[in-house]
Design a protein that fits this description.
The protein is mainly beta. The chain is 0% helix and 55% strand. The chain is built from no helices and seven strands. The strands form two sheets. Strands 1-2-3-4 form a four-stranded antiparallel sheet, with no helix packed on it. Strands 5-6-7 form a three-stranded antiparallel sheet, with no helix packed on it. The chain is globular and about 35 Å long.
Amino acid sequence: MTKGTEIPRADGLRAGPFTVSAVGAEGVDLSSVDASGFTSNLLGQRPDQGGPSTVNQLSITVLAIVGDTAKLRLFPAE
C-alpha cells in the first residue's frame, strides 16, 4: 500500500474505513473517520513493533516497508 490508499470499512469488525496517510522509514500512518465522526489514527506502525495494532475488532500488522510501499495484514482480533 502507498500513501493515499483507502482500505474499506470492515463492517463486521466495526473498524474503518482507513486511509494510508504516510509510508516511510518512520513507519506507516493510518487514519479513519467513522460514520459518527470518531477519528482514529495509527501512527508510526512498523514491522518490528512487537505485535499488531487493534481498532475495535480489527487487527493490523505491518509486514514490510520498502521505500514508499508497505505490506499490511488485516485480520479479526482475537
